[in-house]
Design a protein that fits this description.
Radius of gyration: 21 Å
Number of strands: 9
Pfam families: GTP_cyclohydroI
CATH class of the domain at 101-234: Alpha Beta
CATH superfamily of the domain at 101-234: GTP cyclohydrolase I, C-terminal domain/NADPH-dependent 7-cyano-7-deazaguanine reductase, N-terminal domain
Distance between the termini: 50 Å
Bound molecules: zinc ion
Strand order of the largest sheet: 7-4-5-8-9
EC number: 3.5.4.16
Structural class: alpha+beta
Protein name: GTP cyclohydrolase 1
Oligomer: single chain
Number of helices: 8
Shape: globular
Catalytic activity: GTP + H2O = 7,8-dihydroneopterin 3'-triphosphate + formate + H(+)
Helix content: 25-40%
Domain GTP cyclohydrolase I: 56-232
Length: 239
Amino acid sequence: MKQNETLLNIRLNGEQIELSDLHIDDMGDDHISTSVDTPMREDAFVKTDDEKVVEIEAHFRSIMEILGLDLTDDSLKGTPRRVAKMYVKEIFQGLNPANKPAIALFENKYKYNEMLVEKNISFYSNCEHHFVPIIGKAHVAYISNGKVIGLSKLNRLVEYFAKRPQVQERLTMQIGKELQKDLGTEDVAIVIDAKHLCVASRGVEDDTSSTITAFYGGKFKEDKVKEEFLKYLELKTEF
Ligand SMILES: [Zn+2]
């Protein structure tokens, strides 16, 4: 364990702690609830998107130059600008609450009060520890409390929270909690199965593993309801 000792100091609940002291068993509910929000600075949106692109472009150019790349090469010339635009306007656009999808709810006219499951929602995110892709599928379920949500909004919500530097646990919880808020019910479940390229393409270079995380609220905490949901995920459908 020596090599893992005190990699860095972090602040948790206002207390300075060493990372080596952080054991998953000790994290507890308190940590989970305080870390569900993406850690952002207060001035995160003082700069406009275009100002951010200009600054990131300059910094990314420096990174490439330090790596020894020849930025006069036609193929590389445009890369700093491309990366900067991609960060701000595409893959990290979900950091900005202004980009949150508007959620329209409808009355549940047909009184459908069974579980609704939308499975295999593909998403692309990026690991906040290495800034390389997380590729996954999200399975989202809820039991209507009188209101229903447009199906495409479930995709949009997954996409919004995926487009941030993420950890899979937080992504799962952010989608679950947001859906609970929007639908006005605790009865929401999320399962995410994802591949982390920081595990596959570097580090331990494990190309076959995937990571599963789950969020169960309200009735989904009951074994029967949870089992029904998980059964639906196993159904193989051909279209
Ligand atoms: Zn990573």
